Amino acid sequence: MRFIENNWGIGFSTECVLFLREEVAHAHLTVASMVLLPWLLVTLGGLVLARAEVFFDTFTNTGCTRFFYKGVEPSNGLVPQSAAWICQRYGNQYYFATLFDNKNRIPVYSAYIYQPGPGPRANWFIEPQLVDMSYNKSMEIESSTKIDRQKLEDSQAVSTDFKQTSQTYDRGHLSPSLHHSFQASKTSTFTLTNIVPQHNKLNQGSWNAYEAKTMMNKTAGCDVTYALVGAVSGSEHISEGRVNVPSHIWAAACCIQSGGLKAWAAIAENSAKNEVKVTSVGDLEKEISKLLNRNVQLFHEECPRASEFDSFILKEDKRPSSDAQTLSSYLNIILILATLTVSLSSVGRVEGSWQ
Fold first, then answer.
1. Is 159 left (phi over 0), alpha (psi -120 to 50) or beta?
2. How far apart are CA 316 and CA 70, in angstroms?
């Protein structure tokens, strides 16, 4: 069953957009090209974005092709038996791409352009077209959707799946909100098709450190960074077998910089062990291939497989909760006020002795 329009015109449009994006990153555009760039991106990009959202064989020649370096998505070694290719659409824009495992009700990976920025949390969303291809192309807020609840639960994970195990597993983002700069883009990451059950010690500890610190350090000097974050399905489930708990969480990045390309990767057991191995893309591909027992290639062959650094283990304790941080702040204020009171009292006694 194929839902992708595969005509030469749209394919050409996609390649044009990718070519122009990479040329800008390498600063090779002529003055004439710079003048034409806005018109081309709007005109040609519009042809791509006028497409459906959920596909059943590939991201090639879709609005999400641009989230992969040179338009090349990971090899078929990552594709599960029952899969959906989701162009994550919020409003009327695509913000990242997700390969979704229908059987396990978790994403296999999400691909996006790394553009970090702060922002608030959002409502949880669901994907209507996983229920029926005739439904809305954009994600909908789960709490207000009119879709039949049973049909929704049959097609994907829902919020109630995560409640009973919330003391152990967080709703872990593959494409994290903090790696997106615009509010609409950040909001789009709160779709449950971008979420896996992630051990809270890992999600709030070392994996958070990788997302917030390691990625920022590694991308220094990068013009464009193509990011992939994925999960390897495991043997455990939550919500009475409805949603798979990944055995491993992994990440990889390929960045364009003035001196060429550089790449790096990370992988972690999804457990209380709370350790992240930061390594090369080549090493990660070997580890995933071993776990899945089939060959996996994550990026276009031009992205370096070797690394400029030795692999290392990242281990950071769970970050304090917002409540704990607030309590700590209050205690610090009380301590400061108490100290000032004692100091002022001492000054008063000294002044009194001189009167």
1. alpha
2. 35
pLDDT at 345: 54
What contacts 281, CB < 8 A, 6 or more positions away? 252, 254, 263, 264, 265, 298, 299, 303, 304, 305, 307
Tell me the two tokens of residue 6: 């595969």
- pLDDT score at 198: 98
Edge-to-edge strand list for the sheet holding 106-113 = 54-55, 83-90, 93-101, 106-113, 222-232, 248-257, 260-269, 276-279, 312-314
Type of residue at 26:
H
Q: Confidence class of residue 45 from pLDDT cuts 50, 70 and 90?
A: very low
Q: Quote the CA–CA distance of 229 and 242 in Å, as a whole number.
A: 22
Q: 144: Cβ–Cβ under 8 A, 6 or more apart, which residues? A: none
Q: Which residue has the tokens 């399905």?
A: 233
* Distance of alpha carbon 270 from alpha carbon 165, whole angstroms: 14
Q: Which two tokens stand for residue 124?
A: 């949880």
β-partners of residue 232 are 248
pLDDT bin (cut points 50, 70, 90) of residue 340 is: low
